Every structure is written in structure tokens, then in C-alpha cells.
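Re: folding output
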Amino acid sequence: MLKLYHAPRSRSARVLWLLEEMGLAYELEIIPFRDLLAGKHRTPEYLALHPLGLVPLLEAEDGLRLFESGAICAWLTDRHPERGLAPLPAEAARAHWQQWMYFSVATLEPPAWTIIRHTRMLPENKRNAPALASATRRYRDTLEVLEKALADEREWLLGETFTSADIMLVLTLQWSPGFLSDFPKVKAWCARAMARPAYRRAKHAK
């Protein structure tokens, strides 16, 4: 059975949601979010599994261990193509699926994380107003890209089919949901995704 090391409200939520969408059996090892931030779980035993002591970490039945949420999601969808959560390698939509998977971690996530750090996580005397302003501009630019991608009233990023790329992006957008009011198509897309039963199961997983 697969085993996922997970902290609520962290990047591991992407993997948990995908596991629920795929209907795969898994064991869940929950690390409280406060413990994750404080590094309380960074024991020698856990560092032997994940060299950075972070989440997610996925262990497969054959002993394979993977970290990085995007890599885990891509591996799961390729391992179980029958579940339909990613286009097959020979399909034309595969290139756009890869584009949005990388867009999530390389383009959307960096400014989103900077905004969180300089509005919520850092003490006020450590917050940097110019860095926050720059990140906000970049974040809004990425939201505009998504708004245009959804302009043809498509249900999901790749059209009629929900994929792991939707999961990767929608969960990142929940880090700072207040921005979505200016991007109605993105906001509606997020609402559709979070209305899915698998999302609700993942959110309340114990």
C-alpha cells in the first residue's frame, strides 16, 4: 500500500487530493502543520526518508520513495493511466498538461509564497514592502494568464477532462484566495474543483 506523509495546509494536500481522485488505497501519516513549521518532525529517522525533512513524501509498495508534490503527482498519473488524471504521452493534450504542471510550481507558486511570507508568516519588522509589491504584481500577472486560458468557458484547464494539473494549480491559489475576486473565471474554476467529492474527502482525511 502507498504511504503518504502529509501536513494539512501544505503542498502534500495536492498528493492527497490526487490519491482520492484516483481511488487508490493509501496509508496516511499526518504531521501537524505547526510541527512542520517548527521542525519537530525532523528526526534522524525521518531525515533518512526525506533528506530535507519536508512533506510530501510518498512511499510505494516496492520501496520507492518520492518527494516533491509535482513529481509525485506525475508519477502517480503515469503509473495509473487508466484513472484518466493525465493525458497519455502520445496524446496532443500531454504537452499542455506538462505546461500547467510546471507553471504551478515554477511560475505561480514563487510569488504566492512570497506574499504569504510578507503578509502572514514573518514578523512585521522582517516584512519587505518592495518584495511584497513585486510579488503581488507577478502573482496578478499569473492569474491573468489563467483567466485568459479559461476564457472559452472550458470546465477544466484541458477542456472537459479534470486532471492533476487542475489540482496543482487550484490548491496553490487557495494560499491567497482574496485575489480571486478580480478574476471571475479563475474563481469559478476553483469553486468547481473544490466541490468535487474527492477534494472534500482529502480535506477531512485523518
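--- second protein (sequence, then structure) ---
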Amino acid sequence: MQKLIIIKSRAIPLPVENIDTDQIIPARFLKSIDKKGFGNNLFRDWRYHVHTNEPNPDFVLNNPKYSGEILVAGNNFGCGSSREHAAWSLTDYGFKVVVSSFFADIFKGNALNNGLLPVKVSEGFLKEILEGVTNSPESEIVVDVEQQSISFNGKSENFELDSYKKICLMNGYDDIDFLISKKQAIQNFELKTQKEYEQKLF
């Protein structure tokens, strides 16, 4: 996974509440077990007309004014089923951060496990960001993972982040990578424990 330390980017506003995982990535596109390619069908039923498969010009991802590595969405993002593919589709599309005032717990865990940072902000700050980005698409958001802060238009808030997941995000680790990074420490502990055990025996 890529390292997330400081993300400074324009953002894409999606002021819709209760976006569930089936809206993020419809169930009919879950056949693959490879994480790659899911971005093509991110918000599929909103991005494309169902009957013609033509791009929907009214949907924000099809609007050339908006771009960036940060998605700003309405309250209760990622509710619904537990499908990990929702996080896969967002990262495969190119998002590194999702900002909302509330995330479903399972989605939040899946996101962090796949290098996608869910940033929870107050409802008031979310409203300011959504309005600011919508009216000024060129404006940027700065997310500092180490400081656990998000800044926009001269205002900042801090967000919660599990200390273990913070280490993983900043180093580009998944759970296995983290264990591998501790290989020497684990070996040293095993040797120490073995010596202490042998001393007790003899």
C-alpha cells in the first residue's frame, strides 16, 4: 500500500447522506477477488445511465470541474453490507481520503485495512467543506496523518485515528507488512525467552 503522511489535494463533493456500500459498488460487480479494476464501477448506477450505460453528466465524478484524491461525502458514509469491495473501489479510483461526519464501523475498518483514510469531522465543518469545494473546485484540503488534522479554508479540526492504523498508514503497511517490520524484534524476543526458559530448567 502507498504511504499516507500528508495529503494535499482538491476534493470531490458528494453531499448525499446514508451512502451505502451497494451504491458505492453494486453487488453485480463483486465477482472478482482481485482488488484492481473496481474503480471502473465506483458509484456505477450514479455515474452511468442504467439502460444506456452512457455517462450521467449530472453526476459529480463526470464533471470535469471536480478532481482530486479526497472525497467529501454526507453523513453516515459506508452503511449497509460489510463488503470490503467498497474500500477497494474507492482506492482503485484514486481516492486516498474520505471525509464525512460519520462512518459505518465496518466500512471504517475495511477502509483503514486497505490504505484509505476515513476522516470524521463535525457536521458544521463538513457543511463548510462541502459548500467551499462545490463553489470553488480549485480549493484544496490538507490532511496531516501524523498530526491527525484536516485543514480547509483557514480552519482546522483534529480527527481520531487508532495508533496502530496510524503507523500502518504512514508506512504503507497492511497487517502482514507490519508483522514483517517487527521480524527482528520478534526473533530477539524469542531468543531471550528461550534463554530464560533454559536457565530455569538448568
